[in-house]
Design goal:
Shape: globular
Number of domains: 2
Largest sheet: 2 strands, antiparallel
Number of strands: 2
Structural class: mainly alpha
Number of helices: 10
Length: 150
Amino acid sequence: MLLKRAKRQNIREVIDEDALDFLLNYCGGHVRQFMTFVQQTTRETKTTPIGLLAAQKAIQKSVTTYSTTIRTSQWPLLAQLERSKDKTWDSNDLDRRVLLENLCVLEYMNGGENESVFEAAEPWYAIHPIVRELRQFKSAVKALQQTIKP
């Protein structure tokens, strides 16, 4: 998709490998967010290939957005998901639904080869990679770990 938009034949002409890896890692597999990040990198640099520094600057706005939109009461919910083994998420709960809608929590559907067609269609959830890097998230996970220890 990126090559088609850039009208190029080789990805290396468009973006450095480390910058591409960085954006792919921090979009969490969300294609629209990836393309937004790429668009933002083009605002950070006027040359190609796009470098890592431009990619890092491109996600700074998202870091600010995530860190300011998550309410204090929601950090423990994120920590619980991070620590859960089954990665389920009750989207009927208003706070959880808001976190899902704001892409703080990402929904995935990709069962393994050994799963039935029904198990493969069941969603699982993960914390957005940018949220996982935030100080408040790390503090919430640490606080949860301390309450679990005997």
